[in-house]
Each structure stands twice: as C-alpha cells, then as structure tokens.
Structures
1.
Amino acid sequence: MNVNFKKILVANRGEIACRIIRTAHDMGIKAVAVYSDADKFAKHVRMADEAIHIGPSPSSQSYLIIEKIIDAAKLTSAEAIHPGYGFLSENAEFVSAVEAAGLIFIGPTVNAIEMMGDKITSKKIAQEAGVSVVPGSKGAISDIQKAKAECMKIGYPVMVKASSGGGGKGMRVVEREEDLELSMQAAMNEARSSFGDDRVFIEKFVQQPRHIEIQIIADAYGNVIFLGERECSIQRRHQKVIEEAPSCLLSQETRMAMGQQAISLAKAVNYRSAGTVEFIVGADEDFYFLEMNTRLQVEHPVTELVYDVDLVSLMIKIAAGEKLGIKQSDIKADGWAIEARVYAEDSERGFLPSIGQLVEYKEPGLEKIRIDSGVQEGNHITMFYDPMVAKIISYGPNRIEGIANLSKALNHYKISGVETNIQFLSAILLDEDFQSGNITTNFIEEKFGGKFVPLTPHLELKKKLLALSAAILMPVFYQSYPEKQNKGQNILQISHEEYFLADWNYFEGTHIITIDNVQYEVTGQVTKSMSLFTGQVDGEDLSVKVSRVFNKIKLVHGPYAIEVNILPSKAYDVIAFMPAPNLFAGALKVLAPMPGMLTKLLVSEGDILFSGQQVAIIEAMKMENSLRCEIDCIVDRIHVTEGDLLNVDDLILSLSEK
Amino acid sequence: MQTNTEMLEEKRAQARLGGGQSRIDKQHSKGKLTARERLTILLDSDSFEEWDMFVEHRCIDFEMEKNKIPGDGVVIGNGLINGRPVFVFSQDFTVFGGSLSETHATKICKVMDQAIQLGLPIIGINDSGGARIQEGVASLGGYAEVFQRNVLASGVIPQISLIMGPCAGGAVYSPAITDFIFMVENSSYMFVTGPDVVKTVTHEELTADELGGAEMHAKTSGVSHGRFENELDLLVNVRRLMGFLPLSNASPLPIVECDDPIDRQSETLANIVPENPNVPYDMKQIVLEIVDDGEFFEIHKDFAKNILVGFARINGCPIGIVANQPLVLAGCLDSNSSRKAARFVRFCDAFDIPLLTLVDVPGFMPGLAQETGGIISHGAKLLFAFAEATVPKVTLITRKAYGGAYDVMSSKHLRGDINFAWPNAEIAVMGPEGAAKIIFRDAVDNPELLKEKTAAYREKFANPFVAASRGYLDDIIRPVNTRRRLVNAFEILKRKQLKNPPRKHDNLPL
C-alpha cells in the first residue's frame, strides 16, 4: 500500500500545528486546520488551506473532542490526521476512532500507544526487551543482611525509601555499607511516625541525574533507526525549558548502547512512526529507562537540525505506507542544536502564567536560528491553553557557538504585551555550569529557586546601558525646544538612591555621553520610537531591547535589566530630599497577581492575619494559585466577591498594620 | 562703607535665604523643596529671571513692621521651559508660611498681567497657609485681584497650578479657575474649610488628606487633574505637559520631529476589540497604538475613568484625545465623565489643539443617582463643548455608538470634520436587543420570535454602513491602517478656519 496524501488534517493548535502545516505544504500536501473560538485569528488558521471551527475555547470542548476532529476531517475530505503533541496525540481511543472512520493516523499503532501509555506495563516490556531500568529490591525489605546483599547487587549509593512515602519523608541516601543499618532504622522510624507504616525498599540512587532521551523512527515494515539523543535536563517542575542535541555527557559508547536499547523497545511493541525513549542518566553515564513517548516531542527540532532530517515529513511518509528510506549507518550527527522554550509567564511572580495581547511580537531574523512559533503580532495569549509562545532553536558547529547564537537571538526577540521568560532563558545560557555542561535536572531549582528577577548589570555594563539610555532619552528631553538641540546635561536616575550626572553631545551620527568623567560613544541608529537597539556602545556591539515612555526607559540585555528616569541636571542637589518610595504601602494591599477567577476568599473583614497567611485563591489557566499577605496585618476591607473575574493588579484586600 | 553693589549682593543673599536655614531644613525634611528650588527644576538651567526680589510688606499692625523678609513669601519672574518662555510664581512656605499679603498678591498679579499681555503661559506653585491674617481685608482683596486676572487669562494663555503644600480657604479658587491642577502625594492638600472647622460644624472627624489630599481630589472630586509621587516627579511632568501646549491662544502649536513611521500598520489594532460586543477592552491600548511613540499624557487619569482624555502627538503635532473607556462602566457617559471631557474639549478648542475622538459608547448612564445628580445639564456640557469647538475634529467609532451619546461624541452633525468607523462599528439608536423589544412588542413574550427580530435589527443597524450611506461617516477604515488615515486627516485639516457667530459669550449649561 503506497498512499500519496493530498490533504491531511492537523488536530492541534499553536506552534506545532504551524510546524506540521509547513512540512505538509513542502510536500505538496494541503493542510486543514481546526480551531476553537479563541483561535479564530490564530496563525495556524491563517497558514492552513482550510480551517474548521470545532467549538468553544476550552480544549475540553474543542481540541479534545474526538468526534469533532473526525467530522472535520470527513467534511474536508482529509485522508490522514496528524495529532501533534499533547491533546489527543497519545489517546488510543482517538486513534481507534480515526482508523474506524477510514482515515489514517499519522503516528504509532493503537497497540503501541496502549502498551507504552501504562507506566507499569511499559516498564515490564522494557525490562523484557533488555532495556535497563532502575535496579532495586523487588519489595519491602527489613532484614539488614538481606538489605546489604541487595545493595551489593545494586551498587552504592542507594536510596532507602518508605513504601508509602512522599514529600521526602522516610527517605535516606546511603553512600557506604557502614551507614546502611542506621539509615534504614532512621527511614523506618520516620516512615512509621509519618505514615504509620514502616516498610521500606531500596533503589539505586542516581547521582546528579540528567534527562536524556533517544529519538527513534520506525516504519510499518519493522525498520527502526535512532536519531541520537536529546538532553532535556534543564527543567522547571518537570516542564522542560532548554533542550539540546547532542548531550555533552554521553560517550559514543553510551550513546550507541542507549540507541540500541531504544530500538529493541520499539521492536518489542512493533513501533511505527516517530517516538522517544526517555532515560534518567547519572554522572557516570549509567542510564535507566523512564518512559516512552509515542508522539512527536516538543523538542524534536534539535534532532532535526543536528541530523538534517524532517521528522514530520518522515512521519507522514511512514503513515502513507512508505518504507524508511534511511539506514542507521546513513545517520550522522553534525554540529550542535539548542532549543529554548519561550513561555508567556511572569518569572518575577514565580513563573505565573501571563496573558494578554502580543502588542509587539518581533522574532529575531538571524542566521542559524529557527523559530517555531504559533503566534503573530496582535494575537492574544489566553488562559485556555499552554502558555508556550514559541520555540527558538539555534545551531552551531559546537555547543559553545550554539549557546552564543541562542543568547544573541534571545536579545533580538522582542515581545511586549505579556511577560515572558526570555530573560530567564538568557540567565540560564549565561550560567557557568550550564556553559561547561555541568547540569542536572535540579539545575533550575538549585540555581534559581521559585522565581527569577532580572539581574542588575555589573558596573561596566551598567555604564554602557546608562550611556545608551542617555542617547535615547536626552534628545527626547530636549525635543520641544524651538531649535534642535545636540547637547545637554541631565541626571540619569536608576533608583531613589542611585543616580548619575551625564553629559550628552551629538556629533555626526555619534552620541558622546560622559558619565563620571568617562566618555562613551554610542553609534548606530538611535530613534525615539525604537524598540531594539543594535549598534555599538564604546566600540562594542550591543543589542538591547528598549521600552520608553516619555522620560522613563527600560533597557534589557540578556538577563540584565535597568530602568532609567531622566531628570533636569539641577535636580542633582535636591534629589536626596525626595521621600523614599513607601515600600511598605504595597504590602498593605493584596492585588490580583494575574488575570483569573477568584474562586475562594479565605478571610473576612476585621480578621487578624499573620505574615504569609493564605487569603484567597485565584484560578487561572486551570491552575489554583494562592495569594498570601506579606506582613502581620488586619483585613480592613474586602473589595471583591468569590466568582469575580479579576485583572492583574485588581485590588482584592486592603489591610492595615497590626 | 558698603557700596550699593555690595548691598545688592547682601540683599539678594538675604532674599534667597527666605525664612532662614532652619525653615528650609524643615521644608526639606517633609520631602518638600523650597520655592526657588522648585523653579530651578521646573525651568531650563539658568533661565530664571526673578522680579520683585526686594518687595516687602507694608503692614504695621501686630508689630509686623519689625518682621520683614525681602520677597514677602512669593518668588516671581520668568524663565524658559524647553527653550520656550513662561511666567511663574512660587509661594515660599518658609516666609510667613507662604501666607498671602497685599504685596504678595500684587507680585502675583504683576506676572499675571505680563503673561496675559505678552501671551505667555503662567505656572503658579502654591504652598501657602492662607491669608496673611495680620493684614485682614487687604489680604482678601489680594486674592480677588488674583481671581480676576485668572478669569481674564482663561482661554488666552495656559494657566497651570501646582499644589505643593497647603492650599486652603479662599486660596483654592485661583487654582480652581486655572486650566490644570496637579498635586503631590502626601504633601499637598486643598479644601475650602480645614479639618478643624469641619469638625465643629458637621462633627465629621477627618484628616487633611481625607478632606483634601492628592488622592481624594484626583479620584473623587476631580478637582485635581493629576497626582505625582513626589515634587520632582510633578515638576518634570509639568515640563512634559508644556511640550504639548502653545504659548497662548494666538501662538502656533509646538511641533516636534516624528520618527515613528506615519504609515505604520498595526496588526495589534485589528485584534483589540473583542468579537463579542459585550466584552470590554482597554481603549488606552488603541490610543497608544495610534499616536506617535505610544506617548499619551493623560489628564484626569484617576477621575471618571469611563472616559479618557489627554494629549498626544500625531506626526509630531499635538492633539487632544477624548475616548470612551469600555473597561469602566462599559464606557457609558455619566455626569462626571461628561464634565471631565467637556472641560478638556473646551481647553483644546481655546488653544487650537485639534481633537481626536474615539467612540465606543453604549449610551448615557441610566438611574436615579444620575438623574438627581443632573446628568441632563452635565451631559449637555459635553454636547455643547463639542458643538462649539472650531478646531479640527476627527472622530473614529471603534465599536458602539448608540443613541444620544452617538450624537454627543463629536458626530458629523456637531460639525465633525472627518468621521471614521471601523468595520465592526454599530451605530444605532440603541442596542439590537432593546430595539427589537420596542419595535416588535408582540415578540416580547416569544423568545424565538424576539431572537429572530433582534437578529433582523442587528443585521440592519448594527453596522456602520447605514450611517456611511447617509454620509454621517466619511469612510469606513480598516483598523490596521488607522494611524496613516488619521495622519492624513489631521494634515488636510491644518487648513481649517471656522468661526462661531459673534456674541458677548455663550451660555454653557453650567
């Protein structure tokens, strides 16, 4: 059977729908998009040849409804359906329905999805297929001698875990046999007091764990190859943030071993289409099976760049019954690719989702940069779907250059209207441990904790950014003079306490700024309305994102941000008399940190609260977020009622000091 | 023996010290600047020319003759803001608490007279405990002299009042007549009677801030047009505001270079107004997308937030913007928003600042509170203001224009020069639901039929085409092209010359 599709339906939205439509068009195949109310003007709808409306905005009423997708395919005479990732992509019921409707599912078989979809079954099949799984005692263990023997088999370090454990209670890492007995006792005691159940078991403790996954592709005729690995250790709460191929940890030997195991597993379930076998890998390259994803992964582009393949095209061909045209021996990695996921989230507020309109959305037009995005300027980021805006993928001959290209591209990626994690991504890329490849899945937690606040630039960069801000702000400051001004003196104020006197001279295309007796030259296009500066400061190339409103400017470069206010030079002598901003005032209000519905109000007027007490819950993007007060206080007034829809900074409570 | 030159220097030094170092320190400790420091920040460097530094009061009662300070509590003169001349007076709280004596008032009148005669703006900085009680009625007379000049200057030169300390009793009426009042958070207040008197008369116990602080006047009374974090912030923003204003009603508008492309297309604009006509959106987003550099100097930001007013530039030329704000009260016109917008429109008209009106208005606010509050008169003010305005008037209907509010919002019928609508606009007597219920009374109890009739009405009137077919709209424009179309509109209207019939003055429904 060799089918050449004329038309396929893409049962997804956002960047992955756009990415699949692109390949379909490259292959001369027409693409049908489906969309919900919220996506009427979305990029994937504009890109598609036809688009079918499938219901209200919540995905449970649109993208997740099997009948609607199949009806849309029938209505448009699409022959096959590509599910993308998420939504129905790993839903066996959906695949059955597609096939029952006489359509072709661009993906694996129902059987493979079912077997790999179940954690216990998949682990069992993996073990039988010779894939390494985390070694450990088969059941609870209490006898110390048996435990010692078990540990000898597993190899130290080991983890003693409570059978009914959770939250880190009843867990002990044991490095040496001498410590085993005491640790086991301690774990059992803790387990008994915490859970009323002192059973414990022993498992291999993977030190400095990394997440490394193998991409496989298989046709319907039993041919399976693997396309190297992707390292996805940079995660925040199990959400991947940065992925790369190859992994700087793996030796060729380990890579081949992992690849062979992945292939065995694929063969064991008669796998077809693209799939990914995920492993947890320790510092000494010991690797253990986690799970298999029976779909195209979000991070597939890094593999595509390094192996010069189009995985979507291969998936379509395989679904159409073609044989895999490439052999394992044809496969060769070249260079390095790194992907960063751009999320609409407010990293300063603990990475809460940020919704709104993309008032400005400009992708970097740079070489060796691929952007897979699902949005256009003017689109709205809504609370209905995943907050990922785009993936930005860089390529380079080696890791260092790949990182440098990505850093540069992030500096040219201008998004306003919603908060994004772009500065956070820059901070990761600049981290020394990241750059030297010294990473684990705990990287973000250890380095950043629960939030990221843009960094204050070091003095040298600060002065350069101040010089740039002077070059932009001073012409604005003097713009309404009857004669055009080309020099001036002003104060550049960063904060209540920090301000500088700066002189500005403009001469033949160069702004010369003097701060603290040091001259800085700013060259390149500087305009009042610009949002991205790409020029030189002090002879050095610098790309800086600019947001200016009247006398105030915010400059962003990499993970650094600086806000500058321009004042008349004479203010220098009196600035110190201005009252410091009342930082406490903000603590006496509880404001909505994000748009969403107030689902619970946990206090009443007159209540006495302690610092950190939970006061209300806001639901946004299907997530419950609790709001807390920052100081010991009394509830003065409640300004909202349960069920209210709130915008960012809407006043919920006013408080007074206790 | 001292030469006259030496004496001059000594007298100047004495005058500059005002009420003395300890009072200056006290002023500073409250986060306040001195009268002269404020002028130094407000005006371009070294541009201040001071007058009447040596004037002293002539009061001889209560031993006042022994207590004289050169300047008598107010600093006057002229200087430059952005290279353009202005007259200023600045009350000095360190001298007799900034209290107004006869000579103090005479000094203020002197600069006001000059400002009117020379056609230059006047900026007054108020920081005064009130009348110089020792002088009695002479002080009261002084106030009235100032009021009279404020009135004569109104509409001739821009008058701006900066409240940077107390401003109580009769003193409030000079700022009240001026075009704009700005206040400083936590350090300025205005009231006709202070907390002590209020307590004895009405038994209300209130703080000065509650009775007349910057927040109250910005949000509730609307007496103040803006409030700022601190004095520097206020002074810098007043410099910015001056960049939008002509020097007088006979002077050209200050044009600046514009590097924001005049044909800039905006996909963002096309996606701001939600499809569902009942879902609110932020009109300010539209303003920011249209104008040069996204810069909008908002007036009355915290008051009557259902309407936006303020200054911006289009292709470098200042314009005044009046825009319904669907985010607040669905953008309804009520008493406060009508008063707010009417005063702004009249300011712009007086100083030949072209007007851009953005319309999304479901009508006038219904209810007893509005009717008893006199919405008929207040709404009429806005209607009157738009109708009498002779400046270039460009109107854009972004969504709803219903009923009488359609007429009021700078419609074609009120001599709108160029009236645009976006394709999704609905121009009708009322919303389709309400209209269908009235026209098809029989259908009221039949939901199916009512739905059908509503749809029919929507089909017929909930679009801009009927209005366009009558020429009430000059064109229906695509949102992405709005900036270019507005630039062209204001450009062609630069030639506009229109005069109202001669009369003593109009009779605005006050």
Note: The longest helix of chain A spans residues 177-195.
2.
Amino acid sequence: MLGLLAAMLATVVGSTASAQEGEDNGSSGESASELAIFGQLDFEDPDSAEDVPAVGVVIDVEGVGQVETDQNGEFRIEVPGAGDYVVSLDVETLPEGVNLRNPDANPLESSVSENRDRRVLFPLVFGEAEENTTGAISFRRVAQLTVEGLKLGLYLAMAAIGLTLIFGTTGLVNFAQAELVTWGMLTTYFFNFYGLAGVLGFLAPLPPPFGGGVNLIWAAAFGMVCGGLLGYVLNRFIFRPARGAGVSLIAQMVMTIGLSILLRYLFVYIFGGGPRTFGDYSAQRAWVIGPVELTPKDIVAMLLSVIILVGVATYLELTRMGKAMRAVSDDRELAESTGIDVERVITWVWVSGAALAAASGVFFGLDQVKWDFGFRILLLVFASVTLGGLGRPYGALVGALVVGLTINLSTLLIDAEVKNMIALLIMALILMFRPQGILGRKERIG
Amino acid sequence: MDWGFILERTFSTMFGVEVMVFALAAVGLNVQFGYAGLLNFGQVGFMAAGAYGLGVTINYFQWSFLVGVAFGIVYSILLALILGVPTLRLRADYLAIVTIAASEAIRLFVRWRVMKPVTGASEGIGEFSDPFYDTALNPFNVGQRYEFGPFSYVGRDLWVLLVGWTILIVTVLIVKRLMSSPWGRALKAIREDEDAARALGKNAYSYKLQALAFGGVIGGVAGMLQVIQKGSIQPDTFNPVITFTIWAILILGGPGRTWSPIVGSMIYWTLVSFLENVLRGLPEGPADTLEDTIGLSEFNVSQVRFILVGVGLLLLARYRPQGIFGSREEMALDDR
C-alpha cells in the first residue's frame, strides 16, 4: 500500500493534468490551460418528454463577465484563477414557461479549484417551481425521503459492519474506518481514470485495464480489492504487532486516530481538496417510479448493496470463518479454547471489514468523490454502530437503516443542513437509556 | 536560503500564540485524560464553546467583555455536562465516540444558516475583540513591532501573549496544586482502579464529571484566547484536526505530568514552524526537485504538518505512550 501511495505521489503532477482532460470531455479542447466555469442548461418538454436545451440564457459571473448559452444550451466562462465566484442566472432570459427548479439556488456560490474546471448546475423545470420547503409534508416527499434514507442506511451499513466486527473481535474502536471508506472511493476513482498502473505516468500508454481507465464497474471491483488489501496491511504491519507487544487498547485507539489523520491528509495531498465525480454514470436523469425519483445508478447500487449485505449475513451464518468471527466476537477466550485460530479470524475481519467499507465508499462516490468524505460520515457510522450495540454485526445493519431513515425523514421537520446532528441525538439517547444497543445483550458495560 | 529569517521565525514561534493556546488546551486535556483517564476526543468543541460564548455575548447581545468571558466558561461547563452525563457511567470508549461526534456537531450547528444572526453562520463573528486591546491595562502599542534578541512580535500579539502566558502558568500551577490535593488523588485513584476507588466510597461518576468540566473550561479559555488573537471567529477553524493536534502535543510531552503540555506544545510548534519555513524558503533547485518527485508545492506544504501529526500520534502511541519525558508509572494510556 505504501508503495502504491508513493507511486501516486510520484506522478501527482502528471496525473492531475491528465485528470483535467479526462474530466471535461470536449469543452476544454483549445483552452486547456484556462480555468473556467461551465455547464449546460436544459429542461424536459412536457409534450414530447424530450430534453430541450435552453438557448440564449444569460449567465453572469460576478466580477468576471457574462455569456449567453449556445445552441446546445452550453456555456463556458473563463475565470482568472482558482477561488470563489458568484454565478447568477438571469431569470428574465429563460424560455417562456421555464423556471428554475430551486429559485433559492440563484445566485450560486461556486469555488473553482486549482486544476479543474468547475461545472455549475441550474436545474430547470417547465411550469412552476417545485415546493421544497421544510414545512410541507406530502406523500411524495415522505416516499422520496424514505427511499433516500434507505439508500443512506444501506451504504452506511457496509461501513458500520466492518467497524463493529473489528471492535467485536479485537475490542478496538477503529477511528480510521472512515478513511477506509474514502480509500475505496479514491482508488476506484483512480482505476476509473488511469487503470491498474496508468497512475505511473510512463505506463499510461498501455491499453486498458493496465494503462488507460476502465469502466466504473471494474474499477469498483479493483477498489474493493484495494480496500481489503489496505485492511490486511494495517492489521499485519500495524495492529497485529501492537497487539503482540501488549500495547493497550486505548493506546491502539490513539494509533487509529493518528492513522486516520495521516491517511486523510495524504489523500488531500495527492488528490487535492475539490470534489470530483467518477468518469462513468455521473450525469444521469432520474427515473420517476410512482411517487419517487431515482437515478438508475442509485437503483443498481442499492440492489448491489442489498446483495452484498445478504452475502455478508450468509457468510456469517453458514461458513466456518463467519461462525468463527461471531464466536470470537462473543467471547474471545472461549473461542480460542475451542481451537479457533483467533489471529486468523482477526485478519479476515480486517480484510473483509475494509473491503466492505471500500464498497460503501464506491457507492457513496456515485454522488461525489472527496478526500474527507469518510470523515464526514464517521458520526453516522458511529451512531449506527452504537445504536445496534458495539460488536454486533446485525445490530450495525439495523442501526444503519434506522439512522439513515431517521435523519432523512427528520428533514420534514428540521432544516436539512443540520440533519446529521440527529444522529448525535440518537446516540446520546441510546447511551442514556439502552447503552447495550437495540440488539445488544444486557451485560456489564460500565 | 535565508537561515536568519527562518531561525527568527522559529524562535518567535517558541513563545508565540499557537504554543500558548495549544498548551492551554492541552492542560485541559491533561486534567481530563492525564489525571482522570477520560478519552475526550472533542477538545476543539470546548474551544468553540468558549470562543462562541465570548463572541455571541459581545456581538449579538451587546454585553460587556467580562460577561462574554463568563458565558464562554458557562458554555464549556454545559457542554461537559451534556457529554458526560450519558457517557461517564459507561466504558471509556463511549465518551471518545460521543465527544468526537459532538465537536463536529457543534461546528455544524454554529455554521447553520438559520443561526446567521447569532453566530454569523459560515462567515463567523468579526467584531468582538476590541475591548480586550483597548483596555487601559494594555501597556503595548497595538501596531508597533517589538524585538527582543531573536524574538519579534507585534504589540497586539504581545498583549495577547502576556495575558495568555500568565493564564497558562497560573492554570498549570493551580492544576499542580489540585492534583496533590485530596480531590486530585481521588481522581488518580479512579484512573488507576475505578472499582477500588468506588469500594472506598468515592463517587467516581461525580469526580469524572468534575474533571471533564474543569478540563473543558480550560479548553474554553484557550479557545477564547485564540479567537481574541485572530480578531474573528470562523466556524471551520474548529475542526477535529485541532483536537488531534492537542492529543499529539499532550502525548509528546507525557500525559499526567504538570509541565508536559507546555513542553509538548513548544516542541511541536517549533518543529512545525522550522519545517514549514525551510520548505517554503527552499531555493529554486531543490524546490523544483521536490515538486517533480513528490508533488510538494506551496499549496500542499501546510498539509505536510497534519501528515506528520498523524505519523507522530501513531508512533508515540505505539512505542512511547508515556511521552518523551513521561514515566511508565504515570502513564495514562492504559486499559481500564
């Protein structure tokens, strides 16, 4: 893993430059060196159900200038350098009957990062803008939020199961779990754009999957393998020796914190601070299914995560290793005395836990790839694990679903900006009234 | 390379505002972790409580500076109660999870746009620190630069430093005195063996809650001093990395020792300042080599510091949990 990181470091200059080419296909051709804000405006014609570009709409970037959208509804404004800009759309120039879907998001504040053009979105609708306030509770909104809550819960569950299994078998709260999520996301991004070895500049001319980028599905598989690999490395070279040397659990916990911040800042060092998207399936139009809108990639990802979670449950129930994991979780000494090789079980827990976290990172990455993504959901992961009872894999699954649904449905009543604080509230309540978690057994944890 | 400049900067850092603020926050953490064994991974939340207590009181309620300080302290105590009451009866790692989560939640809360009239949301609070500098007690000319041998500070910073170091030294002396009092000895007994202490009739829960609140107040004061020096309160400066830096500083110095926060803070900031100034001051040739090989540029130089904090924490916790000067006897990184 260190070798791979070093390789990425070694070519960071070259890779960021080619990332830009990979990103904005077409629009940047002649002026690749200039940073720009760009985007495309279109709306769905209610009669033909086809996308129609919005032509001649005036877009203004404060302090830079303004442009009109062209025949394809595209616009591109070059900006003098990286920084924050205010982008506004002149509503008067929109085609007749067309409105902004979210009138509050105009003007938009948009930050342009060092080496990458910035896409801004102004979603348009034909007809009146949708009501999108926190007050209105409609069946549509409840249904939509429930589905989004399920989605969040499923993805969280994969990260949370890894955390809870590691805790169950070793007693260690792994604060670096968040970085395992980000690691999966970022390695997938790199494979998606550079293939297996294209990160090493001189190998880039090789054909895919070695040099060039591969389809996201392959990249995601590689990403999960990389996740498992990192889990193995961390256990084999850091935590197993520490356990062997009798380092206390609390010291090990501080070690995971050091590891977490080390990895996080290595990520931003290599990857840069701006958000990115995968090369495939990044701009999909939502399908309308009954009262719910979902993009095809979300549907596929949700189905896949259900399959993965069912797979995990089957593994834990039916295989020897899965049973051994649960046995070690329940009582390490007892498991050891029945002849289970505890260290081997722990190795597999780290590998599978990290691979699951990586898968969660890939699914979350369908919306946005960012260096500190994992850390931003750490609170939710902890809330899920605490809710389900530390060390209980099924508890983490149920906990994650409850957390995902609760915080999404809470936006019916409170501002979406602070919805993650609900997770903290859940955690405080559960610790006060049922600290063993909803699925945990009552035992002494004081 | 301008070594004179680099050394001057490094020396000035040694007694600078960062060293003082982080040392004070680490003194608070030392009370919580070093003496009481509490895993507070949200010290930055206490700093934010202090800072916003001060800023909101002065800027929003238009009350006086001293009332602001009082509110900062009250907020820190409240935070300690909110965090401690549900968790301190449980196993040690629950407090860790809740504090790290709470410190992020506080940041999200103060930068919530609904809170804009009160906390300034993402823009923070600007006008609140003037009474501190305008007071007749301030012997320095705010705009003037003062030089003492290799040390050089602006008058404004010098006033913060004078007040801050005084508070820091007095706090350390108070902590030292407290820890040899019956209260402190009971606290250490609880850290070493909670069951034994409880069997002797000590209310471990109450002692731990007091230690959390006391350390939190010290952290709150550190937060106040930090924003007073900056002249503004920015929500995003209160991110969890600050907490982890404080941990690195405390473990570097040795948890559970009187002067270790100050020593740790000096070592940490001197190293960081020296390294950053050297990297930033590199002549063209080596600078280009570094940029070509590991992509080091002036944009990511500041991230190197955090990578080092991570490596430092990892290695210290693994090989020297008692810190560089600590002793195994006082080592608090132990199972309970």
Note: The radius of gyration of chain A is 24 Å.
